[in-house]
Design goal:
This protein is α/β, with parallel strands linked by helices. The chain has one domain: NAD(P)-binding Rossmann-like Domain (Rossmann fold, 3-Layer(aba) Sandwich). About 45% of the residues lie in helices and about 15% in strands. It has a seven-stranded parallel beta sheet with strand order 3-2-1-4-5-6-7, with helices on both faces. Bound molecules: nicotinamide-adenine-dinucleotide and 7-hydroxy-6-methylfuro[3,4-c]pyridin-1(3H)-one.
Length: about 250
């Protein structure tokens, strides 16, 4: 059956588990050739095998690792068409414990990584001269000002800023650049963290009730990756069952 993403090469960072894995699964179901890149080499390999994709392990906050990743993508696929910036550390840390080491680490993994990977991906897209899609996973904590994640919220705001700026500079090459802001999602990472205790409170604020699932985000990312979304760029699509309005 013809898929909406047939013939497209999609890179999803941090896709060994959680929301990234659901995005990789959905893009593969739509026909894309999916590359999973995660710092967790074994987890990335298992996730890729499950969807008939390719795993290329990389720490996306490391410039040398990102350069090596894109060299391999170039030789193995001819270049990426769809980039999903998803890799992240999702901290739960009180402001009193936020020191410079924590700040630098969170900014590196949640914001600088998006710069490094988008830098390389958009160079590759323009060299191939066939347009492309950049979709970055931000967070509705940027709108809500959620506590216990100050550096994370700052980084996620940075991702929205990068999205807005790049849309203008890359639109002329047929590349759209958008962000998605999920609310609380029951991912592998969240299940293993104190955020797992917040579902009751968050559900109270949601217009539509229920526990956010990775697939709720993956379905929206698949839309933004598709031709149906060709007239959408520079936007931030909020995916949180109506918890916040922006
Ligand atoms: P998760 O912790 O379940 O998975 C994150 C993945 O990123 C892991 O596989 C991890 O190994 C990988 N990763 C971490 N550091 C990396 C690095 N330096 N290089 C490469 N890979 C790295 O997280 P999740 O909840 O699925 O979150 C996915 C995305 O969704 C993140 O961008 C997160 O900020 C965002 N988000 C999550 C929620 C939520 O409630 N779960 C809400 C809003 C936004
Ligand atoms: C509403 O991005 O969006 C907790 C943890 N609660 O990471 C998030 C909400 C978390 C969120 C997030």
């Amino acid at each position: 059956m013809a898929g909406k993403l047939d013939g497209r090469v999609a890179l999803v960072t941090g896709a060994a588990q959680g929301i990234g894995k659901a995005i990789a699964t959905r893009l593969a179901a739509d026909g894309a050739r999916v590359i999973i890149s995660d710092i967790n080499e074994a987890g990335g390999a298992a996730a890729a095998q499950a969807i008939g994709g390719t795993a290329i392990a990389a720490d996306v906050s490391d410039p040398a690792a990102v350069a090596a990743l894109f060299k391999r993508i170039e030789t193995e696929t001819g270049g990426v068409d769809i980039l999903v910036n998803n890799a992240s550390i999702v901290p739960f840390i009180a402001w009193d414990d936020v020191d410079l080491d924590h700040w630098n680490k969170i900014i590196a993994v949640n914001l600088t990584s998006a710069f490094l990977v988008t830098r390389a991906a958009t160079d590759q897209m323009r060299a191939a001269n066939k347009g492309g899609r950049v979709i970055s996973i931000s967070s509705n904590t940027f709108f809500a000002g959620t506590p216990n994640m100050a550096a994370y919220v700052a980084a996620k705001g940075g991702v929205i800023g990068l999205t807005r700026a790049l849309a203008t500079e890359l639109g002329t090459y047929g590349i759209t650049v958008n962000a998605v802001t999920p609310g609380l999602i029951e991912s592998d990472g969240v299940k293993a963290s104190p955020h797992n205790q917040a579902f009751e409170f968050v559900e109270m604020l949601q217009a539509v009730k229920g526990k956010g699932q990775p697939e709720h985000v993956a379905d929206v990312v698949a839309f933004l990756a598709s031709d149906d979304a060709r007239w959408i760029t520079g936007q931030t699509l909020n995916v949180d069952a109506g918890m916040v309005r922006h």
